[in-house]
Structures are given as structure tokens and as C-alpha cells.
Amino acid sequence: MYDWTTHTHTHLGGHCSHGCVYCYVQAMGERFPEVKAKYSGPPCVLQGELTVKYGKGRTIFVEHMADLFANGVADDMIGVILDHCREFPENTFVFQSKNPARMARFIGLMPPSVILGTTIETNRPTPAVSSAPNPLDRYEALQTIRAQLKNTTAKIFVTVEALSKPRSRMKFPGFPGDGREPRGRSRS
Ligand code: SF4
User: Fold this and answer.
1) Where in 17-144 does DSSP place strands (E)?
2) What is the pTM of this model?
3) pLDDT per position as a tens digit, 128-177
4) What are the boundaries of each domain within the chain?
5) Does the CB atom of residue 15 touch ligand 1 within 6 A?
6) 171-175: long-range pairs with CB below 8 Å, 24+
7) 66 lines ligand 1 (CB under 6 A)
8) Ligand 1 probe mutation, 98, 99, 121, most atoms within 8 A of CB
9) pLDDT at residue 96 tops 80
């Protein structure tokens, strides 16, 4: 959890269609059967979570165990989750997605105070790493959102998931730092 958030909450169960190879949810699922059960299968709204009372004055990272705007999540699921968030407008809600172009379509349904972000791993296409849109496309979509919200209180952030960190080197052949970059590929 980011240290600038105060709470996390997830309404969404099922497998995230982005399938990032470094996904900590999948890694946790390998250790904890209950996590694996909760985050396997088609995306679904965990109905009991829609009754949670958020109170006020909090900064809540919503769907920190999934990607609410992944293409595998139906529009109506996103709608009911945002409806729940809007019931508690005295909080700030954090939405982070590797599909910010789709997130942009739901801005009109979001609560009044939001922090919106994405994660990028590199400036290259990452089909071997994630089924999410390419990192540069994510970044550009977020810049479009920034421009759209420039006269509001919304904040925008980008997190970099470095592929060159030690645990990544074994998993991402062909990326800088793994020592096995394909011939002919530039390091610049
Ligand atoms: S987008 Fe997030 S939740 Fe989805 S697979 Fe990637 S790391 Fe996991």
C-alpha cells in the first residue's frame, strides 16, 4: 500500500485479465489458498463488500488486488463499485489502472475527490510481461486524463515497476539488466 493512503478495499474478485507476470496477487495466491480462491475465475463483484461503510476523511485505494478497468471487467461491475464509492464523498479514492484509456470513460461516475494513476514497467512494448496496453499508451492516456481534469482537485500519478530489480531478472528475458538481451536490440 502506498504510504500516502490510509485504507485499501477491494470489491472485485476473480482473475485479472492483464496477467502481469510480476503480479503480487498471483504470488500471494501461491502461498495462501484463500487468496487463490478469491482471485481465480471470471471477474465478479463481491456483493458483501458493497455494504462496507467508508466513513470520512480517508484516502482509500480501491481494488488494490485487481484492476477495476481491465477489459475483463464488465461495465456494470465498474458502475456498482463506483456507485458505492460515491456514497461516501467525504473521502479521497485512489484508482490505479494499467488501462487508463478505459478508466477515462468512467470519470463522470467517480466520487468528487480522486487520485488516478497507472503503472509502467518500461518505455517498450511489454507483451511478454503483461496483457495490459503498452506502457507508453498507458502514460499517454493518463496525460489525456490529466488535461481533462486540470481544473479539478484530482491528482494524477505514475508508478514505475522496474523490470531490472533482482526478482525480475529471472522473469523478464530481453529486458535491461537481465544479461540476456536479444541480439540487435538497442539498450537506449
Ligand atoms: S494489473 Fe495488477 S492485479 Fe492485474 S495482473 Fe497486473 S499486477 Fe496483477
Assistant:
1) 44-45, 59-62, 92-96, 114-120
2) 0.86
3) 899 999 999 999 999 999 999 999 999 999 998 877 654 443 343 344 33
4) 7-169
5) no
6) 171/21, 171/22, 172/21, 172/128, 172/129, 173/128, 174/128, 175/122, 175/124, 175/129
7) yes
8) 98
9) yes
